[in-house]
Amino acid sequence: MKVGIPKGLLYYKYHPFLITFFKELGADVVVSEDTNKKILDLGVKYAVDEACLPIKIFHGHAVALRDKCDIIVIPRIMQIKKNEYICPKFCGLPEMVTNSIENMPLSITEPIYTFTKKRLYRWAKSAGKKVTGNEFKIKHAFLKAYEGQLNYNAGILDENYDIKIALVGHPYNIYDNFVNMNLVNKLNKLGVGVETMEFTHELLISLEINNLYKRPFWTFARENYGFAVNASKEKRVDGIIYISSFNCGIDSVIIELIKDKVGSFPFLTLKVDEHTGEAGIDTRIEAFTDMLERRIVNESNIPTHG
Ligand code: SF4
């Protein structure tokens, strides 16, 4: 059986688990290609106009896989942390995709709760049955996949740059190089190193969150706020770049909360959608880098990071 996995949304966070699980079940795993112009155009064509860019891109990946697999994984991710939620678009993703794209293959859409091993195993039992009737095989595949995910080190932590920024945003904006137009590479070429939230301990994130009037309801909001505020406060970075999807309600709230907290600390928001031009991004990050350089030299505001 060929199992299709679209390279969109939280694929960037959970691909070791998904790929290992279905491979261990004996399936032939087909992952869509990296996001490109063709995938984007397909997404724009099939998704509803109001959808944000990452959702449109997921649609594009689903169309690209439509004729290449017997069954497709459309993850209905409900919760990745207890008592927190993620964007409602994740919960309704299977309905959005299957109602917008005709002739889709069978799909795996069981709700996913990743905050305990037991809850995730529930998903594995149900999803695995669509590939094999062998319960022992499903359990074995789950354990292998779980271990693979635990051993996966995501995140970017550049060393040896004179200037460093905290790169904040959803994983699908940070790690999809088509969406962000190779932002990390561009920054590195300008002499700017990058740090992402994976290297900030959960406890530090929680400490920053505790200072808020109200705890954010959304997991990504909590993580992005906690990381950005902590990195600026500890002066591990010289500035913050938030890469945000146009139309994302969660981003619009969290960007304002971060700005309010960090005050005059350098902060750049890069909004992306299907119309974003590369020249505009280049100009903005060059100007931001110039400003950081001037700030370090002229204002004696030298950070304490290595
Ligand atoms: S969190 Fe924002 S960017 Fe992500 S799927 Fe929801 S609306 Fe889109």
Overview of this structure, please?
The protein has 306 residues and is of the alpha/beta class. 48% of the residues lie in helices and 15% in strands. The protein is built from 13 helices and ten strands. The chain has helices at 11-24, 37-46, 53-65, 88-91, 93-100, 117-128, 135-150, 171-174, 183-189, 202-210, 219-233, 249-262, 278-298; strands at 2-5, 28-31, 71-73, 76-79, 106-108, 111-113, 163-169, 192-195, 239-245, 267-272. Strands 2-1-3-5 form a four-stranded parallel beta sheet, covered by helices on one side. It has a four-stranded parallel beta sheet with strand order 8-7-9-10, sandwiched between helices. The longest helix has 21 residues, at 278-298. Bound molecules: iron/sulfur cluster. The site of iron/sulfur cluster has 10 residues, from α3 and α12. This is 2-hydroxyglutaryl-CoA dehydratase.
Structural class: alpha/beta
> Which outline best applies?
globular
| Euclidean distance between termini CA atoms | 51 Å
Indicate the percent of residues in helices. Answer: 40-55%
Biggest sheet: strand arrangement = 2-1-3-5
Radius of gyration: 20 Å
Q: According to CATH, what is the topology of the largest domain?
A: Rossmann fold
Short description:
The protein is an alpha/beta fold. It has helices spanning 11-24, 37-46, 53-65, 88-91, 93-100, 117-128, 135-150, 171-174, 183-189, 202-210, 219-233, 249-262, 278-298, and strands at residues 2-5, 28-31, 71-73, 76-79, 106-108, 111-113, 163-169, 192-195, 239-245, 267-272. The strands form three sheets. Strands 2-1-3-5 form a four-stranded parallel sheet, with helices on one face. It has a four-stranded parallel sheet with strand order 8-7-9-10, sandwiched between helices.
